[in-house]
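Appendix B, example 12.
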Amino acid sequence: MHIEGELFTDIVIIFVAAFLGGMVARVLRFPILLGFLAVGMVIGPHSLEVVGNVETVTTLAEFGVILLLFAVGIEVSFRDLRRLGKVVALGGLAQIVGTSAIAYFIGVHLFGWTPEQAFVFGMVVALSSTMVVLKTFTDRGELGTVHGRVITGILLVQDLAFIPMIAILPALSSQGVGLDLADLGLGILKATVILGLMATLGWKVIPWLLDRVAHLGSREIFILAVVAITFATAAITQLVDLSAALGAFVAGLVLSESNFGRRALSEVIPLRDTFSALFFVSLGMLTDPSFLVENFDLVLAVVAIAILVKFALTAVLTRSFGYLPHTALLAGLGMGQVGEFSFILTDSASALGIVNQDFLSLVVVSAVLTMALTPWIIAGGTHMVTWLSRRVHILRPYRLGDDRSEERRPQLHDHVVICGLGRVGSLVADTLSEQNVPFVAIDLNPHLATRFRGRWQYGINGSSSSESVLEG
């Protein structure tokens, strides 16, 4: 009872501290996430030591990650991710490999680490924070934008890449007997099969189950059903050595295509926000301010690498797949942090003797700093990109081409302008076409705009919020 009493007291303290930190951050017009991290540092074991049971609290905080990924899965349509295609699969892999290679080179030649330590460093820096990025974009209402969907897809690829990364670690340690490619391939195959089966069965089982529950007419039972589905799928993936949050994301993705997606999202949001606060406060408690002071130069260098390298690589890769410079820059802004899975990687590497405790502290402090900076980077960077787009010709949020030239410019009068070519936009276009109503469509996704031009001719790759696009 004494341990349970301590845990209860710790949770009460954390929620009160989260409320105060979030309120102060809101009054000062800072990102609320920063308030959570700050109070976590204050009440944690490295400062006032108000909370003692950090490990148990951190375990409970993982519920926040699971609920957030489930909610994001509902908000992000599977069809939208599939349309992104190459930029998600190839772009995500290229970003991981490129970031790891650059970080490895810096680790060996600038920081003087062993090749094994530098290899771990490369993998750690390559992974971004799914939790922080998706929460930031959800709060800003940008999750459904083109750059929001691109980032979501790349983050999903990173989460999947965590599986082979963990499998590689034993080969880097003095205890390792070499990398077994057969085991690695089997692990990846197992992950593919499990996630595929979950998605296939989920499309039939989850909507059927929720339909039966909804007919009971009980809101409480419906909420319990949604929560049970979320944590059951998370438990299944965890049992087969995959990320629990990844299973919850798949469940949300499946539910997004059903008639119950929006209702499930509205019911789970309060739980998601509550446990998200718990997660960020517990993350702040892991931060050691004294380590930051004593190793400020090294921490600053790692933070700069995580932000600048991934920004540049993501922006260049997104642009190379045909997206506008405007979209590419916005996508790059969201990738500049060290992620949650980096903790697990570093902790596992520490247990294997590949890295020491100082390396682990470096990763934790750098991760917290980059996470805290992310909302400011995205907000400030978005304003900067928008400002530059009005003044720099190449950054304007539309693509020059045949559809913008004088010879091919649609000569329309009293026509309808469709802003966005998602499911609703496509349905509107079908209806207008049947009624012989002239229209032109605008979308930031170049592939959708090209496909639209092939079918209806008048499609512009650009931003409907841009005056130059609307006036053209």
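The first strand starts at residue 416 and ends at 419. The chain is about 75% helix and 5% strand.
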